[in-house]
Amino acid sequence: MRTLITLPFLLGGLALGASACQFTQTVDDDKIEAQISRKLGITADCPGDLSGEVGATLRCTAANAPGVAAVTVTVTSVEDDQVNFTMKAGA
Description:
Layout: H1 2-20, E1 26-27, H2 29-40, E2 44-45, E3 50-51, E4 57-62, E5 70-79, E6 82-90
């Protein structure tokens, strides 16, 4: 009888442990800098990776664009392992 009582508790603990483990995607700063260069024609330096959570932002410093001091990158959606974001150059 003791085994029957212990087994459900063990299985319940495994289920809770599995559901509490979540993985947050990130986008490497080198990839973001390459996208900024390709799409905006600006060289930028980003301080780190972008967290793959909707609404997360990253402010990158622009290097070769007169009148542009920074590029703000904002996550718009996350689909499976793909993080979608927008880029906006500003003063």
